[in-house]
């Protein structure tokens, strides 16, 4: 999904993101504001996974919402 599209639809996507990664807070999502890198960093922090694994999860999520 295009980064501009993500930023434009961020508020609508936050609900789906919270379903996927329930440990993320509203503050995390507000601070991310559509930033793939920030989101991956927060996923890494909250779930204790490697940065690459977090980025893979974000990419997979983007693919699912793009369909």
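Sequence proposed for the structure above (67 residues):
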């Amino acid at each position: 999904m295009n980064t501009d599209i993500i930023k434009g639809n961020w508020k609508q996507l936050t609900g789906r993101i919270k379903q996927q990664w329930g440990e993320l807070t509203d503050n995390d999502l507000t601070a991310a504001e559509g930033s793939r890198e920030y989101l991956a960093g927060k996923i890494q922090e909250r779930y204790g996974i490697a940065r690459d694994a977090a980025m893979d999860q974000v990419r997979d999520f983007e693919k699912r919402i793009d369909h």
